[in-house]
Amino acid sequence: MHESVLLNETIESLNLKDNSIVVDMTLGFAGHSSQILKRIKNGYLFAFDQDEEALKFSKEKLSKISDNFQIIDSNFVYAKEKLKELGVEKVDGILYDLGVSSPQLDEDYRGFSYRFDAPLDMRMDQDNKLTAKIIVNTYSYDKLKKIFKEYGESKFSSNIARNIVKYRESKEIDSTLELVDIIKSSVPYKERLKKHPAKQIFQALRIEVNDELNVLKKSLDDSLSMLNVGGRIAVITFHSLEDKIVKHKFLEVTKIDEISKGLPNIPLDKLPDYKLITKKGIKASKNELDFNNRAHSATLRVIEKIK
Fold first, then answer.
1. Domain ranges in the chain?
2. Please, which residues have CB within 8 angstroms of residue 1's CB and are 6 or more apart in sequence?
3. pLDDT band at 108 (very low <50, low <70, confident <90, very high)
4. 28 with 292: CB under 8 angstroms?
């Protein structure tokens, strides 16, 4: 089980009150949620996840702290409507830890990992019709190359896409390790020594299968609309694509128009509804990096609703 990344920084940045209503969009094993619950003795926590193991573990863990919580078995993209069904339209704090996609990433039989042999699946939601197997066996060369380049940020996207298309002419690609072999054969040996060549491609496939970037964009818009004045959203991202989405959205809603910028005191009606709490993304401390390897790629961004 992994350590929660940027735990103290995130909890502090949410600026919780005793009676805050908080939403944890990515419950996982309740690392952040358990700390939140301790600080909102007269408040309430709503937490979202889809992983059975995480849901069961976290329910037991949180129950030992307080009863002021509800866990919702759903993807966070549906959070706004799920909360509305419960009569909750406004909240004081929202947290995303996007590295906690869930323990599914380390489960060999779900096809998320390039370390285990498994069917090419990668679905977070088992009702989803699209799988990684469908993508690698049916997408065109151009489409594969685009996904690997944009979502995987791979320098070898052309080579890999070309070799996948060539391989599947004689045989369908069924398993993760079959795909790993194709990827390895497409990347120069020197590059393979630096990092596992399949990491970026598996990331790209996972994003495509689960539509992760569009899900994040929609969810951020929903979250901004649910905040009370004084409420904050804290987002921890683990790769540049997600961070770019969060950064641009936060900049977009905190932008001051050019005319008002020059005024010594900007009138309240000319201020945007939100302000940035983190001008730059917060990175993990050296102390945390020493014991938590996952923290190296983590960035925390925070925004507050001011009117």
1. 7-103+214-305, 107-210
2. 29, 103
3. low
4. no
7-103+214-305: which CATH architecture? 3-Layer(aba) Sandwich (3.40)
Q: Quick one: fold of 107-210?
A: DNA polymerase; domain 1 (1.10.150)
The arithmetic mean of pLDDT across residues 152-167, rounded, is: 96
Alpha carbon of 222 to those of 57, 91, 306: distances in Å?
28, 12, 17
Element housing 241 (H / E): helix 240-253
Average pLDDT over residues 90-96: 98
Each residue's pLDDT tens digit, 178-200: 999 999 999 998 888 888 889 99
CA 117 – CA 103 distance, rounded (Å): 17
- The closest of 81, 77, 82, 71 to 29, measured between CA atoms, is 71
User: Given the structure tokens 């920084």, which residue do they identify?
Assistant: 9
Q: What would the DSSP string read from start to end of 24-38?
A: ES--TTSHHHHHHHH
> For residue 231, which amino acid is it?
G
Give me Rg for the CA atoms of the chain.
21
Q: pTM for the complete prediction? A: 0.89
